[in-house]
Write a structure and sequence with these properties.
This protein is of the alpha+beta class and 629 residues long. The protein contains 19 helices and 22 strands. It has four domains: 305 residues, FAD/NAD(P)-binding domain; 141 residues, Elongation Factor Tu (Ef-tu), domain 3 (Beta Barrel), CATH 2.40.30.260; 94 residues, tRNA uridine 5-carboxymethylaminomethyl modification enzyme MnmG/GidA (Arc Repressor Mutant, subunit A, Orthogonal Bundle), CATH 1.10.10; 61 residues, GidA associated domain, C-terminal subdomain (DNA polymerase, domain 1, Orthogonal Bundle), CATH 1.10.150. The strands form five sheets. Strands 1, 2, 6, 7, 8, 9 and 20 form a seven-stranded mixed sheet that branches. A six-stranded antiparallel sheet has the order 14-15-16-17-13-18, with no helix packed on it. The protein is globular and about 80 Å long.
C-alpha cells in the first residue's frame, strides 16, 4: 500500500500533521509506538498559557484541531495576564488528560483519508535522495511519498531518577532506539536534550485548607473561533497555590549531588525556562520560597500535578521534600518525578517549510526539532502537514512570517537562529506582539487557512461575519457624535476629580471618547442609545482597535519596514566567498544557513548590520546587471 503522507508519532505534532494532510485530501498514515501515547500529556495537564495560548488560537484559526479538542475536554479555563495589555492576554485551560487523549484518538479514527496504526518505525527509506517510505521492526516496509518525523521525546529515551537510568519514553512508555541509530547513519544532526516532570500527588491526601484556591474565569472564552458565542461548559475543578520553604530547600541542597544532572548521570541540555527545584535552589539561593501550583489531572482521576517542582531526586528524598510544603504534609503519590533525555534534531538543518535539507520529502515537527511544549509541537505539526501536501502538489511552501503569526516567530527562530536548549515560545520573542494578539488570530489567518484548503467553509463564513460586525461597529462609533454638554457630564461621572476636568468645547465622536483611558466600551452605552447587542468577542475587538490605535499604527509602520527586508530575496546561487568586505564569520554562517531573504539573513547569529549592508549592495548590483542585459 502506498500513502501520500506518513506521519511518525502521534503526539501533539503528529496529530496536527496527520489531520492537516488528510483534510487536504491526501491518503495519510499516522503511526504510534503505543496507542496510549496519542495526544498524551506526560507533563502538565493543560493547554495554552503565555505565548502558548496565542499559538493554539492560531492553529485553530488556520483549521487545526487542538483548540476544538481542549474546548471539549477542559475542566478549568482562565485568561492569563488580564491586568496587563491585550498583547499578552493568553488563554489557558486545564485539561482532563484522559478525555483529551480519548477525544483526539476518536478524531483521528473518524477522519477521512487517515489511517491510524500502532507500530515501531526503525528506518526511513530513501531512494536517490528522496524519501520513499518507512520500515517497521516487523521487517515490513510501507511506501510513502512524504514522511513527517514527529517523534517527541521517544528517540533513545533515557528516564532518570537519581543515579538510576531506564531506557524508556515519557511516563514509562516504550522508547525508540533503532530509528535514532538509522537517522544518524543518514546524516541527520542529532543531539541530546532533556526535560523533567514533577510528581503526581493523590488528591485526598492533600490539605487544601492550607492552600490558596485558584478558580477559573466566570466568563469562559473558547479556544476555538468556531465556538465563539457558544456555551462549551463550565469550570468544574479548582487549582491550588502553595509555596516551598527553607526547610524543603535545605533538603534539596543537601541531596543535590544525588540528582541525575548534578551527579553527572545525564548529558542532555535542559530547558532554561522550566527549571527543576534543584536548579531553583542552586541558582537562586536567596529565594525563601517558590510557587507551587496543584493541578488536577481529570474528573475521573485522583492524581494532582505538582506544577513547578520537577526533579530527579531519589524517591525517598522526593517524598521527604514534597511533604515540607504546606498542605502536602501527609501527601501520598501516584507517580514520582523523573527527568528524561532524548535525541532531537538541530533545526538549523531544516528549511523554513520544515523540510529537512538533506532528504527530499522528509519533514520534521515538534520536540524532535528541539522545542518544548504541546502547543509549540502542534503548531509545527500543522505547518509540516500543510507543506508536505503542497510539495506533493508541486506548490510552493506556505511559511507564516514573523509579522503574521506567533507560528512564524517560532519556526523562523528555529531554522534561522537555532536553539541550544529546548525552545519555548514567549510573547517577548515576537517583535510585533501588539498585532499578533490571541483575540485577532482569525482576522490574521483564517482567510489564509481557507485559501490553503484547510479552514472549512463554516469557519470562513463565521470569520467573514465577525469581521463585518467589527468593521460595521467601528464605522458606527466613528460617525456617532455626542454634544459637548452631554459628553462633559458623562466624563465627570467617571472621574474622581470632576472639577479638574477640562471641558470639551465641541461635539465628539464615540470613537474619540473611547480613546480616553477612563472610558470603556461597556460604560459608553450611557451615551449610545442606538447600540445593538453584539458578541463579546466583537466588542472586545472594537475596544482594542480603538484604544490602541496609535500603538497599532506605529507597529504597522515597523511591519512595512520589516517586510521590505523580508521581501528582498537572496539569489539561491550566491557565492558568499566572493563578496568583498564580508567578515569571515558572516561568510561562513551565510554559506551554511543559505538564508532566503535579507530579513532572515539579518537574524542569523554572527551576521552584523555591516555584513547585511554589503550583502544588499551586492544584490542591488546583480539586479542592475540583469536589467542591463
Amino acid at each position: 500500500m502506498i500513502y501520500d503522507v506518513i506521519v511518525i508519532g502521534a503526539g501533539h505534532a503528529g496529530c496536527e500533521a496527520a489531520l492537516a494532510a488528510a483534510r487536504l485530501g491526501k491518503k495519510t498514515l499516522i503511526l504510534t509506538i503505543e496507542e496510549q501515547s496519542i495526544a498524551m500529556m506526560p507533563c502538565n495537564p493543560s493547554i495554552g498559557g503565555t505565548g502558548k495560548g496565542q499559538l493554539v488560537r492560531e492553529i485553530d484559526a488556520l483549521g487545526g484541531q487542538m483548540g476544538l479538542t481542549i474546548d471539549k475536554t477542559f475542566i478549568q479555563s482562565r485568561m492569563l495576564n488580564k491586568s496587563k495589555g491585550p498583547a499578552v492576554h493568553s488563554p489557558r485551560a486545564q485539561a482532563d488528560k484522559e478525555k483529551y487523549h480519548t477525544e483526539m484518538t476518536r478524531t483521528l479514527r473518524e477522519q477521512e483519508n487517515l489511517s491510524l496504526m500502532t507500530g515501531e518505525v526503525v528506518d526511513i527509506e530513501v531512494q536517490e535522495g528522496c524519501v520513499s517510505g518507512i520500515s517497521l521492526n516487523t521487517d515490513e516496509t510501507i511506501s510513502g511519498r512524504a514522511v513527517i518525523l514527529a517523534t517527541g521525546t521517544y528517540l533513545s529515551g533515557l528516564l532518570h531518577v537519581s543515579d538510576s537510568a531506564e531506557e524508556s519514553g515519557p511516563s514509562g512508555l516504550k522508547a525508540s532506539y533503532k530509528l535514532a541509530e538509522n537517522l544518524k547513519k543518514k546524516g541527520l544532526p542529532l543531539r541530546r536534550f532533556k526535560t523533567g516532570t514533577p510528581a503526581r500527588a493523590i488528591s485526598n491526601t492533600l490539605d487544601y485548607d492550607k492552600m490558596n484556591e485558584q478558580k477559573g474565569d466566570e466568563s469562559i472564552q473558547p479556544f476555538s473561533f468556531l465556538n465563539d458565542g457558544k456555551y462549551i461548559g463550565e469550570n468544574q475543578l479548582s487549582c491550588w497555590l502553595t509555596y516551598t520553604n527553607e526547610q524543603g530547600h535545605t533538603i534539596v541542597a543537601d541531596n543535590i549531588d544525588k540528582t541525575a544532572p548534578y551527579g553527572g548521570h545525564t548529558t542532555g541540555v535542559g530547558p532554561r525556562y522550566c527549571l527543576s527545584i534543584e536548579d531553583k535552589v542552586s541558582r537562586f539561593p536567596d529565594r525563601k520560597r517558590h510557587q507551587v501550583f496543584l493541578e488536577p489531572e481529570g474528573l475521573s482521576s485522583d492524581l494532582v500535578y505538582i506544577q513547578g517542582l520537577s526533579t530527579s531526586l531519589p524517591i525517598d528524598i522526593q517524598r521527604e521534600f514534597y511533604r515540607t510544603i504546606p498542605g502536602m504534609e501527609n501527601a501520598e503519590f501516584g507517580l514520582f518525578a523523573y527527568s528524561i533525555e532524548y535525541d532531537c534534531l538541530d533545526p538549523l538543518s531544516l528549511k523554513p517549510s520544515l523540510e529537512y535539507k538533506g532528504i527530499d520529502g522528509l519533514f520534521c515537527a515538534g520536540q524532535f526539532n528541539g522545542t518544548s511544549g504541546y502547543e509549540e509541537a502542534a503548531a509545527q505539526g500543522l505547518i509540516a502537514g500543510i507543506n508536505a501536501v503542497r510539495k506533493l502538489d508541486g506548490k510552493p511552501p506556505w511559511i507564516p512570517a514573523r509579522d503574521e503569526a506567533y507560528i512564524g516567530v517560532l519556526i523562523d527562530d528555529l531554522v534561522t537562529k537555532g536553539t541550544n536548549e529546548p525552545y519555548r515560545i514567549m510573547t517577548s520573542r515576537a517583535e510585533f506582539r501588539l498585532i499578533l494578539r490571541q483575540d485577532n488570530a482569525d482576522l490574521r489567518l483564517t482567510e489564509k487557512g481557507y485559501e490553503l484548503g484547510l479552514a472549512s467553509k463554516e469557519r470562513y463564513e463565521k470569520f467573514l461575519s465577525r469581521k463585518e460586525a467589527i468593521d460595521s461597529e467601528l464605522s458606527r462609533l466613528k460617525n456617532t457624535y455626542v454634544r459637548p454638554g452631554e459628553a462633559n457630564r458623562f466624563l465627570a461621572g467617571l472621574s474622581d476629580e470632576p472639577d479638574k476636568l477640562k471641558p470639551l468645547g465641541g461635539r465628539i465622536s464615540l470613537a474619540e471618547l473611547l480613546l480616553r483611558p477612563e472610558v470603556s466600551y461597556d460604560n459608553l452605552i450611557a451615551l449610545d442609545a442606538d447600540r445593538q447587542t453584539l458578541p463579546d468577542s466583537v466588542c472586545l475587538q472594537v475596544e482594542i482597535v480603538l484604544k490602541y490605535r496609535g500603538y497599532i499604527e506605529k507597529q504597522n509602520e515597523r511591519v512595512e519596514r520589516f517586510r521590505k527586508l523580508e521581501n528582498k530575496r537572496i539569489p539561491s546561487d550566491i557565492d558568499y566567498s566572493t563578496l568583498s568586505g564580508l567578515r569571515i564569520e558572516a561568510m561562513q554562517k551565510l554559506s551554511e544557513h543559505r538564508p532566503e531573504s535579507i530579513g532572515q539573513a539579518s537574524r542569523i547569529s554572527g551576521v552584523s548590520p555591516a555584513d547585511i549592508g554589503i550583502l544588499l549592495i551586492h544584490i542591488v548590483r546583480l539586479e542592475r546587471e540583469r536589467q542591463d542585459r
